[in-house]
């Protein structure tokens, strides 16, 4: 798959000595949704700001669509739409004029039909003549997305796009994101809602203290780092486990009313049927079997703890 964003050796240090990014390498594929996860201050917004030409890197290079973001700034920036965390709009302007003006900033000709479609897609059409100052926070967030889409970018950055947005607005936004992806738009998002990354993203990147710890296909990441847990419910509480079962990795849980076994989901050598047979051979009856697997949030938290 073609690379649309190529980040090589990117670092950013400030005069105070704080190093926001440390030698980041990242390639983003055309048409994918990449979610960047990390705690506050990890460097997510700094990375986005450098790619978008808002912040100057201390070292390294970035290319968007083959255009160097420093040497070919106009060409690279024209390919990018950015929805920042902050709500920065002209409070005394109308929704229509604000979005139309953003398109004009990129030298694009007027296209009333396109602006109308963007506003309708974001449920803003009935607000087109309203001044920005009269809108709710969620509607202002939609206006920011409309502005970012007004010049038909091929790459869209969403920096915490659903922060402070209610459930209905969030659902509509992600429906729009899916439509944009189907049209070939590449989407990079940062989010604190890990369930959104798990639902929406094709790949996951994890940033901590300015370092990109990993970038993996979501399904592969969950396969490699996810843990499965097998729980056997017991009809009667058990005071202790036979030593043979302890050696197999089984443990008592829920006050002795269940047996628990955790294992690597990617480990093909784990013999669950054999484990169940061993429990039965030990004379222990169980009334129910339940399995669960680590969520992306579990993986994210464990990964940060391991790299701390």
Would you give an account of this structure?
The protein folds into two domains: 220 residues, P-loop containing nucleotide triphosphate hydrolases (Rossmann fold, 3-Layer(aba) Sandwich); 69 residues, Alpha-Beta Plaits, CATH 3.30.70. It is built from eleven helices and 14 strands. Helix 3 packs parallel to helix 5. It starts with a strand and ends with a helix.
List the topology elements.
Elements: E1 3-13, E2 19-29, E3 33-37, H1 44-51, E4 59-64, E5 67-68, H2 73-77, E6 80-83, H3 95-105, H4 112-121, H5 137-149, E7 155-159, H6 167-182, E8 186-190, H7 194-200, E9 203-208, E10 211-217, H8 218-225, E11 227-233, H9 243-246, E12 251-253, E13 258-264, H10 272-281, E14 288-293, H11 296-307
Parallel strand pairs: 3-8, 3-9, 6-7, 7-8
Antiparallel strand pairs: 1-2, 1-4, 4-5, 9-10, 11-13, 11-14, 12-13
Helix pairs in contact: 3-5
Indicate the CATH topology of the largest domain.
Rossmann fold
CATH 2nd-level architecture of the largest domain: 3-Layer(aba) Sandwich
Broad structural category: alpha/beta
Q: Please identify the top-level CATH class of the largest domain.
A: Alpha Beta
Mean pLDDT: 86
Strand order of the largest sheet: 6-7-8-3-9-10
* CATH fourth-tier homologous superfamily of the largest domain: P-loop containing nucleotide triphosphate hydrolases
Q: Secondary-structure element sequence?
A: EEEHEEHEHHHEHEHEEHEHEEHEH
Task: Tell me the domain tally.
Answer: 2
Helix content: 25-40%
Strand % is: 25-35%
Q: What is the radius of gyration computed over CA atoms, rounded to a whole number of angstroms?
A: 25 Å
- What is the strand tally? 14
- Overall shape: it is elongated
Q: Main β-sheet, in a few words?
A: 6 strands, mixed
First and last CA, distance: 33 Å
Which stretches are low in confidence, meaning pLDDT under 50 for 5 or more residues running? none
Q: What is the number of helices? A: 11
């Amino acid at each position: 798959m073609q690379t649309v964003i190529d980040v090589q050796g990117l670092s950013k240090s400030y005069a105070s000595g704080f190093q926001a990014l440390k030698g980041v390498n990242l390639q983003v594929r055309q048409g994918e949704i990449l979610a960047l996860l990390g705690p506050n201050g990890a460097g997510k917004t700094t990375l986005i700001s450098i790619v978008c030409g808002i912040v100057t890197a201390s070292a390294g290079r970035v290319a968007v669509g083959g255009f160097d973001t420093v040497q070919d700034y106009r060409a690279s920036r024209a390919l990018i739409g950015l929805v920042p965390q902050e709500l920065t709009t002209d409070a005394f302007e109308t929704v229509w004029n604000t979005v139309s003006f953003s398109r004009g900033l990129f030298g694009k000709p007027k296209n009333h039909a396109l602006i109308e479609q963007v506003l309708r897609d974001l449920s803003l059409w009935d607000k087109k003549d309203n001044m920005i100052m009269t809108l709710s926070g969620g509607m202002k967030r939609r206006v920011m997305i409309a502005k970012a889409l007004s010049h038909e970018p091929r790459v869209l950055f969403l920096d915490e796009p659903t922060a402070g947005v209610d459930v209905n607005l969030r659902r509509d936004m992600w429906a729009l994101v899916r439509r944009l992806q189907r049209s070939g738009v590449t989407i990079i998002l940062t989010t604190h809602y890990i369930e959104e990354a798990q639902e929406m993203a094709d790949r996951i990147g994890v940033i901590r203290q300015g370092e990109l710890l990993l970038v993996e296909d979501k399904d592969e990441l969950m396969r490699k780092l996810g843990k499965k847990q097998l729980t056997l419910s017991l009809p009667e509480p058990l005071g202790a486990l036979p030593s043979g079962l302890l050696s197999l990795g089984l443990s008592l849980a829920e006050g002795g009313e269940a047996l628990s076994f955790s294992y690597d989901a990617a480990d093909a050598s784990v013999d669950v049927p054999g484990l169940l047979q061993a429990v039965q051979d030990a004379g222990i009856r169980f009334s129910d079997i339940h399995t669960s697997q680590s969520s992306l949030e579990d993986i994210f938290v464990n990964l940060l703890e391991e790299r701390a």
